[in-house]
Amino acid sequence: MVDALTLRGGDYWAGPVLPLMTSLDIEAYPFVEIEGLTRPVAFREATYGVELALLNLARRRLADDKDRSDLFEEAVKRSLTKILPHGVELPYASTFIPIAGTENKGETDFIFRDPVAGTFIGECKAMTAVHAPDTVINSFTDQVGKATKQLRLRMNAVKNGGAVIVDGIPWTAPADDVFGIAVTIHSYGGAVWNHECLPYAEGSHPNIAVMPIHQLLVVVRAMGSASDLAEFIRFRSALLDMNIELQDELDILAAFVFSDAARIRALVDDAPQHGMRVIRAYGVDLNVSLNDTMPTNAEAWQNRLKRTLV
């Protein structure tokens, strides 16, 4: 497996420099073999973001786009099944939310429900990042925009009492509170956390979150209940509505665990009208990230965050 994610020393020596400066091969090949030794030269990608390399490998091995999409959806559903809070039901079968008045069958990537928190609908986008930096926003607008549009249609259908069909059988979905989660492979250069970029992809909605798979799993693992997850989705939307500059999902999660939206709103209201509004950014010591075992429950995970974020 590592060999498939490895470049050989000198592979690019004869090529032009400019394409390498904008290339994302570092995500696909975080390892480099030099004189018989393979090392994680792209250390961050080989440790924190190895899923990008694995998903890029899958895209190279799978020629059909449908197979690539199915693989990503399977990875998301299987991962969520392992970490969703107790009492949440995520069916592992084909799901449809027909859109009334159209021929749209409303095929849905995943759905889960909680009797208290409501219904959560998910759309996965298995597109990889583009190479040219100046086209990232176009890719974000097109690819993520498709996901949020699909989410809005399905959310409205459920809110209006539309049917949910799971494995060919009607499935009761609580309609009072309906949330949407658009799951991407990567962050589109941070656009998923940018209050100026999200409107281009119709991602500004109090009940919709756009999150890369890695960050989604970190967040869900820290939630003690589906109600916590619902509150978190609304919390992050509130931060984005305040035009706060956000750098990573972990910063939002830390603010959620350590503070509350009303307190942050008060701080923002008291801040000068001019200048950049930035939420505190956190880091995690690399040794802690690599060596600590994953907490077994949400409370332990939140305590770990409070102890290790610096």
Description of the structure:
The chain has 2 domains: 1-61, no CATH class; 67-244, Restriction Endonuclease, CATH 3.40.91. Helix 5 runs parallel beside helix 7. Strands 5-4-8-9 form a 4-stranded antiparallel beta sheet, with no helix packed on it. Strand 2 (31-34) and strand 3 form a beta hairpin. It is built from 12 helices and 11 strands. The model has no long low-confidence stretch (mean pLDDT 86). The protein has 310 residues and is α/β, with parallel strands linked by helices.
Structural class: alpha/beta
> End-to-end span in angstroms?
34 Å
- Strand order within the widest beta sheet: 5-4-8-9
Q: What is the oligomeric state here?
A: single chain
* Number of helical stretches of at least 4 residues: 12
CATH class of the largest domain: Alpha Beta
CATH topology name of the largest domain, in short, is Restriction Endonuclease
How many extended strands? 11
Mean pLDDT, as a whole number? 86
**Overall geometric form:** globular
- Low-confidence segments, given as residue ranges, are none
Share in β-strands: 5-15%
Largest sheet geometry:
4 strands, antiparallel
Radius of gyration, whole Å: 20 Å
Helix and strand succession?
Answer: EHHEEHHHEEEEHEEEEHHHHHH
Provide the number of structural domains: 2
The helix fraction, in percent, is: 40-55%
Instruction: Give the CATH architecture of the largest domain.
Output: 3-Layer(aba) Sandwich
Per-chain topology:
Layout: E1 6-8, H1 17-22, H2 25-28, E2 31-34, E3 37-39, H3 43-47, H4 50-61, H5 65-83, E4 95-96, E5 107-108, E6 110-114, E7 118-125, H6 136-159, E8 165-166, E9 169-170, E10 178-184, E11 208-212, H7 213-221, H8 226-241, H9 249-258, H10 261-270, H11 286-291, H12 298-308
Parallel strand pairs: 1-2, 7-10, 10-11
Antiparallel strand pairs: 2-3, 4-5, 4-8, 6-7, 8-9
